[in-house]
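[agent] plan:
  1. take the single chain provided in the ticket
  2. run structure prediction with default settings
  3. attach structure tokens to the ticket
  4. add a short note for the reviewer (M.T.)
[agent] executing step 1
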Amino acid sequence: MTRFEVTEEPSPGYDGERIMFVPSRGLFRAAISANGDITLTEDRLRSLMAAATGTEALAHGLDKLLGTAWDSELEPYRHAGDGAPMTWLTQVG
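[agent] step 2 finished; step 3 output follows
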């Protein structure tokens, strides 16, 4: 049951990227900004707003676009020390 998270830091002229995988959810991929925030395109937001039938559906759609469920499932495996340049996923427990 492999789980992983890979983050490519942005560089001049290129967005960064975050890829997360957990067996129960599959693969999640998103562009990230220079400060590490996930960025959403105008088209994805417009599509969500057009399809959402209410505030709950809109909130659920935003959580999905931001990868909230993937983050929640990976959080127990994250471990990093002060000043560490990267986060390693490790088994906790």
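[agent] step 4 note for reviewer: The chain has one domain: 4-79.
[agent] ticket updated
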